[in-house]
Amino acid sequence: MNIDIRNSRLFVPESGLIAIRDGIGTRIVCHSGAFWITQEGRIRDDILNPGEELVVQSRGRTIVTSLADGEVTLAEPGRSAGRATAPAWWQHLFRTAPAPANC
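-> structure tokens emitted (103 positions)
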């Protein structure tokens, strides 16, 4: 089963982990708590506090570890973390659908 959590605000308990595979361009936004971010192939790790965000630079695995109970958003590339948007295929449907005929 695949669960799509992109653009969702997630509660992560202290010491909880989120593993992201090939997440280059994904924005990680910290809303509360604190998160330790480790990206495969990068020398340094990052710490996110409330109001801070980070864009994943690695094509490898990225590990998000909660240092305290907190909330985080994972926003896929090109999307705002502040609001959810319709999937690209859904948006395309509305752009290409013909206007209804007047009755």
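Residues 83-99 have pLDDT under 50 and may be disordered.
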